[in-house]
Amino acid sequence: MSQSLDLDLLRSLVAVAETGVLGKAAARVGRTQSALSMQMQRLEDVAGQPLLHRTARGVTLTAAGERLVQHAGELLRKHDEALAELRGTQISGVLRLGCPDDYAAVFLPYLLQGFASLHPRVQMEVACAPTPRLLELVARRAVDLALVSVQQGRGDGEKDEVVRSEPLVWVARRGTALAAMAPLPLALGAPDALDHQLPLRALKAAGRSYRIAYASSSLMGLVGMARSGQAVTVLTRTAVPDDLEILTPAHGLPELPSVGITLAFDRTQPSALTAAFAAHVHRFLPLA
Length: 288
Fold this sequence. Notes:
This protein is an alpha/beta fold and 288 residues long. It folds into three domains: 7-86, Winged helix-like DNA-binding domain superfamily/Winged helix DNA-binding domain (Arc Repressor Mutant, subunit A); 90-158 and 266-284, D-Maltodextrin-Binding Protein, domain 2; 165-259, D-Maltodextrin-Binding Protein, domain 2. It contains ten helices and eleven strands. The chain is globular, with a radius of gyration of 21 Å.
């Protein structure tokens, strides 16, 4: 008897991949944790091999699971697009999105193109700014939702639903000896942003002296300073241009933490349009 991939099972697998915790994944797809576990067992039976590594701290994907999740995202997108078209229920309206420059450069084209194919009658308005400014826009309801950065493992009891984890890295022009300079010349983001505060905290803990050569919320400005060879900057790893070098602890700089990408909403109960885009982000934002 032939077997096929059930779309409900694939949707649950994507939720598991995105959350890494069966309980959170179950809540996202509206099932109990035991029901979700049974779904994963059924999917592994169809695949004929394990798809998940189960540990006391959560679950991770096997190599086969990673491959299947990539296919699942495309299959689910096509399914949802076809169903929306057949039902004539495509949503419309204006969605105001906030996004930091580095995420906009790397993730936004992919996300917006995919959402536009699903919902061609939606108009997007995008505001780019550092996370602190985006949170102000959200609070004023000047944007409907925003992709923002949060510090992971900050230990203050706050629990943000992290969509993706992004390591912060030291970046400089290739071949420079900036990392050995004292004080270390830095080009950093806005003073109240994590990409400014976390590097300084790491340098102080390591006993390294530094000076702020350039502070700006402009991604292009920071990249330009690094390219000039005048300063070391800090970027999310996915935003590092190919012509710049990532500096590691071998260069004498302390390791930097990761930040989490999460969604901030302008209200407790988002509109149908806002909720649809949030679901799209959770489903299709590439995993780290």
